[in-house]
Amino acid sequence: MVKSILLVGVGGQGTILASKLLTTGLMEAGYDVKMSEIHGMSQREGSVSSQVRYGDEIQSPVIEIGGADILVSFEKMEALRWFKYLKPNGKVIVNDYEIDSMPILSGKEEYSQGIIDEISSRASTIVIDAQKYALQLGNSKVMNVILLGSIIKAMELEAINWEKIVRDNVKPQFVEVNLKAIEVGMNLL
């Protein structure tokens, strides 16, 4: 059985790092994994997406419209922008966090109000204030790993040795805070 996870955010949020940790963990657990990432001006608050597909045999890294089992949005406007990729019975995990992306900063779009209400009315939605928990851990940059923890729990991937994955892929000075961040994220679901 193939599972598809779509991670979306804004440049600088650590979306790609979270997807790489996820992919590494899935591979070490023996899954066939394909990952595709789009950096869309990520250095300038542009949209960033990462598609992770895993199972016994994966032919393509690309998630088709209506094909994601779970949509994990690191920034709430991105959840709305990518919503069409969610399966009809899929789940959304959305970080209740706003960043003005390039279209908003340039005046081409306005930041939509009521995003979480709209998404919640259309799909099973879990809302997380990852910034609040990251600040409690003393490092705002671990929002991405908190959200990774929520993916681990939502996709029932707790049996994977995430401590090893973090220790092998994160700078030593940030290992402990990232391990705590995964635990926080898993406990939010």
From TrEMBL:
NCBIfam families: PRK06853.1-5 (NF005325)
Pyruvate/ketoisovalerate oxidoreductase catalytic domain location: 11-186
Keyword Translocase: no
Keyword Metal-binding: no
Protein name: Pyruvate ferredoxin/flavodoxin oxidoreductase
Pfam families (UniProt xref): POR (PF01558)
Domain of life: Bacteria
Listed InterPro entries: IorB_Oxidoreductase (IPR052198), Pyrv/ketoisovalerate_OxRed_cat (IPR019752), Pyrv_flavodox_OxRed_cen (IPR002869)
Molecular function as annotated in GO: oxidoreductase activity, acting on the aldehyde or oxo group of donors
Keyword annotations of the record: Oxidoreductase, Pyruvate
